[in-house]
Amino acid sequence: MTDNTFEYAPAPESRAIVDIKPSYGLFINGEFVDGNGRAFKTINPATEEVLAEVAEADDADVDAAVRAARRAYTRVWSRMSGAERAKYLYRIARIIQERGRELAVLESIDNGKPIKESRDVDVPIVAAHFFYYAGWADKLQYSGYGSTPLGVAGQVIPWNFPLLMLAWKIAPALACGNTVVLKPAETTPLTALLFAEICQQADLPPGVVNIVTGAGETGRAIVSHPDVDKVAFTGSTEVGKAIARAVAGSDKKVTLELGGKAANIVFDDAPLDQAVEGIVNGIFFNQGHVCCAGSRLLVQESVAEEVMSRLKRRMATLRVGDPLDKNTDVGAINSAEQLSKIRELSEVGESEGAERWSAPCDLPSNGYWFAPTVFTGVSQAHRIAREEIFGPVLSVLTFRTPSEAVEKANNTPFGLSAGVWTDKGSRILSMANRLRAGVVWANTFNKFDPTSPFGGYKESGYGREGGRHGLEGYLKNTEKGANS
Ligand code: NAD
Spans of biased composition, class Basic and acidic residues (predicted)? Predict the structure, then answer.
């Protein structure tokens, strides 16, 4: 045989398991309602196919949702014992597991992420969050943050992890005895609406969870509603700052999870093949639509050439394409708007003098795609080293000493996460102490667990989600010594 290549056989997950309706209403007081009649379309970013029409909530719809949440809070949820609330959370967690395949397929269709990620990462962690916070519901007196809920939580989430961000917001809020009004992002509303069906299936009392769909105006109506006691937001730093300004002077409690520009630092004693896997996972996981993505690679000069050659070899094997194909590593960019931002910043990178290399791959003709890309010869002043690209684009810088690595890593307005790759435990500890980042991963990257707090410094926001610390944002701080 002269030709030993073989043809690629796709392994697509069937979409028959999901039942996408032509149109969706708002989920208020335990029912789907029409609202004001305005609607927007949600599309599949891998094909540009319109998936459904979704209601766009206005101020009056948001007000109806907040009133339903207030009623449920006063009459039912805040009066229920923690042990009773836990039963609902456990039930929701079990239904998420039972309907896991359906949730994963729908998430991949509406968001563009590979099925192997929605199936093996997003959905299992979503269920784990509900299980974890169910466990806290009857033990709040041991949290260190008191056990009194705040009331109604207004929650606004982004499109990069639609269901996971929902879980990070709703699970601790309900465990602490709050009720919620949540708005998913306008490009990814469908799994939140399926979650609303799961709330019905779990017999959650009406009004405890309300899901209102819409864009920025709907989000603004939620965060500025006078009867919302707590605002929880994940998204861009720009909108986060606008929200902080909007609630200033009110007694609303606020947590903000914003952007990042994480340094992934590779020392010359690191196991290089493992580090290359970590670099790939750090920036190409979820198409790089990750606030804590390892988007700045800091590599020690003595191994830079070797790391780059292994990295490019590995990148050339990444399979980009159909999100529902079980072999796909990198799926579709979530929207035309995000694709144009990624393209624009990449062009800026070239014009600033950095050298661009993209993995050779055939991109589908429909949908929104961007080949995994790496920039070398990047300096700290370049925009691609400073700004969040939020796509599959890596900027590479080099360093000589640990101090130089720390200085470069911390030279950013953000402070969400960082990675350190080295053989020496003592170096891991000293780096972790010096890096201004909420999460520091050592010899791994992008690992999430419900028991572990997550959050940032500086322009990456404030407040923590996950773990015992994640309860603080949903309780009145009555404990002596609790952080405010
Ligand atoms: P965004 O901040 O514009 O939107 C996030 C959510 O906020 C969406 O639900 C949106 O409808 C809502 N929103 C928009 N304007 C609002 C307002 N004035 N008041 C209240 N809610 C409002 O972010 P995006 O468009 O989803 O993404 C833009 C950038 O944000 C990305 O390029 C990336 O840099 C960053 N981002 C960060 C994260 C993160 O997890 N930290 C997630 C997604 C996006």
Answer: 461-471
Ligand 1 touching residue 174 (CB < 6 A): no
Q: Report how far residue 482's alpha carbon sits from residue 108's, in angstroms, rounded to the nearest whole number.
A: 40
Which of the listed residues 156, 157, 188, 383 should we mutate to test ligand 1's pocket, taking the one with most ligand atoms within 8 A of CB? 156
Please work out whether the CB of residue 389 comes within 6 Å of at least one atom of ligand 1.
no
Residues in the chain predicted with pLDDT less than 50, given as ranges, are 1, 480-484
For ligand 1, atom 19, name the residue with the nearest CA. Answer: 220
**Ligand 1, atom nearest to 183 Cα:** 9
Do residues 188 and 234 touch, judged by C-beta distance below 8 A?
A: no
Residue written as token pair 């890096």? 435
Whether 479 is catalytic: no
Tell me the per-residue pLDDT of 93-113, one tens digit each, with 9 for 90 and over. 999 999 999 999 999 999 999
Q: Is 258 in the pocket of ligand 1 (CB under 6 A)?
A: yes
Separation in Å, CA 367 to CA 28, 179, 329, 339, 393: 33, 38, 16, 10, 19
CB of 219 closer than 8 Å to CB of 209: no
Q: Write down the pTM of the prediction.
A: 0.96
In ligand 1, which atom is closest to the CA atom of 460? Answer: 41
Tens-digit pLDDT profile for residues 268-309: 999 999 999 999 999 999 999 999 999 999 999 999 999 999
The single residue of 56, 102, 107, 257 carrying the catalytic annotation is 257
Residues in the chain: 484
For ligand 1, atom 13: residue with the closest CA: 216
pLDDT at 478: 61
Which atom of ligand 1 has the smallest separation from the CA of 259? 41
Please provide the DSSP assignment of 175-242 as one string: HTT-EEEEE--TT--HHHHHHHHHHHHTTPPTTSEEE---SHHHHHHHHT-TT--EEEEES-HHHHHH
The DSSP secondary structure of 29-86, one letter per residue, reads: TTEEE-TTS-EEEEE-TTT--EEEEEE---HHHHHHHHHHHHHHIIIIITTS-HHHHH
